[in-house]
Amino acid sequence: MTEVSSLTGRLLVATPRLADPNFDRAVVLLLDHDEEGSLGVVLNRPTPVGVGDVLEPWAALAVAPQVVFQGGPVSLDSALGLAVVPGQTRQYDDDGDDGDLLGWRRVHGAIGLIDLEAPPELLAAELGSLRIFAGYSGWGPGQLEKELVDGAWYVVESEPGDVSSPAPEKMWRSVLRRQRNELAMVATYPDDPSLN
Asked: pTM (2 decimals)?
């Protein structure tokens, strides 16, 4: 089996060619990627459901818009908390300890998953931003790699601010626009090319 180079912590940005309506203009943060498959959350799909309506203890810590985001089409009845903890940018300290906070597991840099069963007070003072996602996006072994070869996704670096973008509806264009190559031009692609 060919070894898979991990894309954990990177963004998948849907290309205009991607036909799956679940991922039209989607920006997905990969939370896990290895030879067993991939898992991520769509960062730019807010729902009308308030965080306080489903996870009231975490509502005060969620960043605006304080709604639940649809993380993807898998397990829509489950919730994931994704948070940026500014002081947690190092991967490992000198003694090999990863330094993760109790109730928070690093995904990449300062971005990590929150244990939503933990008391919010445990992390309240450390959190820079928090988003709650219903469901996730998942790919089986080799599935994402095939989609990449087929040209369904652009792979770009993530930034901690991506998790808490205040304008998620503009995120597809803004992530593409910040690229320093021909991808910046893709940001101008019309929503409906037939109207061009």
From this structure: 0.88
Expressed in percent and rounded to 5, the helix, strand and coil fractions of the chain are 25, 35, 45
Q: Which helix (H) or strand (E) holds 183?
A: helix 183-186
Domains of the chain and any CATH numbers: 10-195 (3.40.1740.10)
Structure tokens given for 63: 């960043």
What digits encode the pLDDT tens for the residues 151-171?
999 999 998 889 999 999 999
The answer to whether the CB of 188 falls within 8 A of the CB of 45 is: no
Give the alpha-carbon dihedral of 110, 41, 159, 55, to 10 degrees: -50
- What are the tens digits of pLDDT across the range 32-48? 999 999 999 999 999 99
What is d(CA 142, CA 163) in angstroms, rounded to the nearest whole number? 26
Task: At 185, list the tokens.
Answer: 């031009």
Convert the pLDDT of each residue in 80-129 to its tens digit: 999 998 876 544 443 344 456 888 999 998 999 999 999 999 888 888 89
Which pair of tokens denotes residue 158? 């993530």
